[in-house]
Write a structure and sequence with these properties.
The protein is mainly alpha-helical and 591 residues long. It is 75% helix and 0% strand. The chain has four domains: 1-166, Growth Hormone, Chain: A (Up-down Bundle); 180-327 and 397-473, Growth Hormone, Chain: A (Up-down Bundle), CATH 1.20.1250.20; 328-396; 479-586, no CATH class. The chain is elongated, with a radius of gyration of 29 Å. Helix 4 packs antiparallel against helix 15, helix 13 (240-259) packs antiparallel against helix 19 (408-420) and helix 15 (298-344) packs antiparallel against helix 18. It is built from 26 helices and no strands.
């Protein structure tokens, strides 16, 4: 009997943990099936939507539902649909299979409550969520994304054999039964919406933008379930209302910390995700206690399952479109920021033009939200040597920061969902009485709760102070207000670089566009970054800019009069080739 219940608990845990397992497979699915960010979100959303709808129907049906037969049907459907998802040839097949898998999960999760009992059912859900990221990351990296679905099918099949002989068990109380579950249901919807924000957004950011391997990404994301388990099973003392409020605030603060990441750092992300998990560990058991109470019924289990998955759908519906738009806009900013970074690199100006063009093209070709292949851009520009490596490292860092900022609004939406859940969570907790616990455990709970409260204030503030408010910003500089020395250093090369870059600033000022857009236009870069320029106007503008840069260099004393005179003659004869070559061939000038 224990083995049968263990297998059924494992199947329940997998079904509950679906979002945290599948989310690690989204980036490779995103690439292999050629879908979009919004399309990828439907791989989770359609599953959650079907679970929410079917579970709501079961909640209404109530006593008319036979738990044993419904569990069996759920395991059959879940197992078959999992196998079908593993062999999906395209996105449409996969999304359809996910809908059928959601049907099986709704039947299984709702009907398993009276068979497992409230305590075992709730623990299976918690452990499933905790193990989900690591399991999804390990399977995806060791095999591929299909393995996460194929691995679920035999587990459900074994649980099917077990469930045919399992007998209902007495309910184990989670807490005092409240007069009505409505506040708990509303709170659960908000908390689940915030959770999908943390998981879905966190994985896309860490794996797609920061380019972590799936398993490494899973380790970072696992900070959330680890924090949740530590607080869920380690701290059960104190007033339920206090735990509910502190938990909701901590979840919201962790999401704000993710929105204010000061750099592409796994350490910062793990701290913010751990705070999110700690918040869930405090508030989730309180909501479960208010909702489930002493009742181990299909109707009650279905209500909780429906609320949780309705929250996932709500979160994705609110977040995915905003994220998609922000990432498209972020790609445009990345082109400009990347080109600006190239212009400041220690490369010949002609090489800068080639690299800026290559960077613009790979960013334009990359799917929104995916890190462009900057290594290939350096290769396409035919650059090598230490300077090229330094330029590539600066490019990666700058573009990572710009794309990371594109997630900010979405993380803040998730934080708002968590904040909106605080009041209904407190109302639901008001129907519960504190559990009697030993004094030592109360003292531990006080210390832990105080630590979480400190983290609520300290983490967002520290991220903001470390540069989280400015990271990834890009404002196009005014070329007419550019400093006379746009390139640092002494000697021949820095002097010529200053003249060439000063000429570009002057030309951009004459035309009335930012310097970066001028460079991208010279390179014929596609997309919104480039503008159409009249060739005659361009030649005149570059000539005026070059003459101004030569005058500035002579006035500063870094360019002898003879060299200045020679450059003026060359500027009037062929200004554009002179600038694009970085004035490299004039090394015989008496500087």
């Amino acid at each position: 009997m224990n083995l049968r219940r263990a297998l059924l608990s494992l199947a329940v845990g997998l079904a509950f943990a679906d979002a945290s397992i599948v989310v690690l497979a989204l980036p490779p699915i995103y690439g292999e099936l050629g879908t979009s960010v919004v399309g990828t979100s439907w791989i989770i959303a359609v599953y959650a939507a079907v679970v929410a709808l079917v579970a709501a129907i079961l909640a209404v049906a109530g006593p008319r539902v036979r738990a044993g037969a419904t569990t069996t049907a759920g395991l059959v459907v879940f197992s078959a649909a999992s196998a079908a998802c593993g062999f999906a040839p395209d996105a449409a097949w996969l999304i359809t299979g996910r809908a059928v898998q959601g049907l099986g999960a709704a039947l299984l999760l709702s009907a398993a409550l009276p068979e497992l009992g409230t305590r075992r059912w709730a623990v299976a859900a918690s452990i499933g969520l905790a193990a989900g990221p690591a399991l999804g990351g390990a399977l995806t990296q060791a095999f591929d994304w299909r393995s996460i679905f194929l691995a679920q099918a035999p587990v459900a099949a074994l649980a099917l054999i077990a469930s045919r002989q399992a007998a209902p068990v007495p309910a184990t109380p989670l807490g005092e039964r409240g007069p009505a579950p409505r506040p708990a249901v509303v709170a659960l919807v908000g908390l689940s919406g915030a959770l999908v924000g943390a998981l879905f957004l966190g994985v896309l950011l860490i794996v797609e933008v920061w380019q972590y391997e799936p398993l490494a990404g899973a380790v970072v994301v696992s900070a959330l379930p680890v924090g949740m388990l530590a607080l869920r099973f380690g701290v059960r003392a104190g007033p339920p209302v206090g735990r509910a409020v502190l938990g909701g605030v901590a979840l919201a603060a962790g999401l704000v910390g993710l929105a204010l990441l000061p750099t592409s750092s796994s350490g910062w992300a793990a701290l913010a995700l751990a705070l999110c998990g700690a918040g869930l560990g405090l508030v989730d058991p309180v909501i479960e206690a208010a909702l489930l109470g002493h009742r181990a019924e299909v109707r009650v289990g279905a209500l909780e399952v429906s609320a949780r998955h309705a929250g996932l759908v709500l979160g994705l519906l609110l977040i995915a479109p905003v994220l998609s738009t922000d990432l498209e806009e972020g790609a445009d900013r990345a082109v400009l920021a990347g080109a600006d970074t190239v212009l400041e690199a220690r490369l010949a100006v002609s090489d800068k033009i080639d690299l800026a063009q290559a960077v613009g093209e790979v960013i334009e070709d990359a799917e929104p939200g995916r890190m462009p292949d900057l290594e290939s851009a350096v290769d396409d520009a035919a650059l090598d040597g230490d300077e090229a490596e330094v330029a590539q490292a600066a490019l990666v860092r700058r573009i990572e920061e710009v794309l990371t900022r594109g997630f900010r609004a979405s993380f803040l939406i998730a934080a708002a969902l968590a904040a909106l859940a605080i009041v209904p969570a407190a109302l639901a907790a008001g129907s519960l009485r504190p559990e009697p616990v030993p004094a030592r455990r109360r003292a531990l709970a006080t210390v832990v709760s105080a630590s979480v409260a400190v983290g609520v204030v300290a983490l967002p503030f520290a991220a903001w102070r470390a540069g989280g408010d400015e990271v990834g910003e890009y404002a196009e500089p005014d070329p007419c207000a550019a400093a006379p020395d746009p390139y640092s250093g002494d000697g021949l090369d820095p002097t010529l670089q200053r003249i060439a870059l000063g000429a570009l600033n002057g030309a951009a000022c004459e035309i009335g566009i930012p310097r970066t857009r001028l460079v991208l236009s010279l390179a014929d870069t596609p997309g919104t970054a480039a503008v159409d320029l009249d060739e005659g106007d361009l030649e005149n503008a570059v000539e005026a800019g070059l003459l101004r840069a030569v005058d500035d260099a002579q006035d500063r004393g870094s360019l002898p009069w003879l060299a200045a005179a020679a450059l003026r003659l060359a500027a009037r004869a062929a200004p554009l080739p002179l600038v694009l070559d970085g004035i490299e061939n004039l090394d015989l000038l008496p500087l």
